[in-house]
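Lecture 7 notes: from sequence to structure.
We start with the chain below.
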Amino acid sequence: MPFKKGDFILVDYTARLSETGEAFDTTSEDVARKENIYKDGALYEPNLVVTGEGWVLKALDDALLNLELNKTEKIEIPAEKAFGERDPKKIRLYPLRKLTSQGITPQVGMRVEVDNRLATVRTIGSGRVLLDFNPPLAGKTLIYEVTVQKKLETSEEKISALIHRRIPYVDIGKFSFEIANGTLNIKVPEEAFYLEGLQIAKRGIALDVQKFFPEIKTVTFTEAFKKPEQAEEKPSSEKPQEDTEKSQ
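Predicted structure tokens for the same chain:
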């Protein structure tokens, strides 16, 4: 078995519907654009997966253990092992006014929140809306085209990947960290200081690190605000005018 549970691997994938071949998720920007599923602001890059941790569908998680590095494989996941079979009891009619009173103008295919649950609008008519509370991919057989791009070996690689997983939109090369006496100190770059949800991200990093590195008891974060360097004043190239007036 090439991989074992607990391995840190970087995975590229494209997920498709078996019935139509339509792509619905991918880590490749080129594929996203080609399949018309590109999202502005999305980050397209290999995903970190710690095998056995449930970060992906269990059937996919199990299959990753048998893949070879840098070799693309197709993994078929039946509906019962993906998002489950469709449940007719989860399809219900609701009064249209229940949505419009919340400022929602429903359209077929739209995802809406009703009674604290997400649903898909299936049909609209006669003052009523047919809402489907099944997951969008329920009842679908999925095909994952997967490539394990890299297996992370060192503690430094793994910690960097855990940081990047929580704060993906800041270059990981701008973070630095050191471990001493059971404490991990992470220096946070200025680009991350004002990110929305930074405190939650830091909490997540701390929990991840302490889970996978039990020898690390404390995780600290350093945020240093440096004074901007002022440009040195260059001497003027103009010679001062000599005072030609003589005192009387």
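Points to note: The mean pLDDT is 92. Residues 105 and 143 are 34 Å apart (CA to CA).
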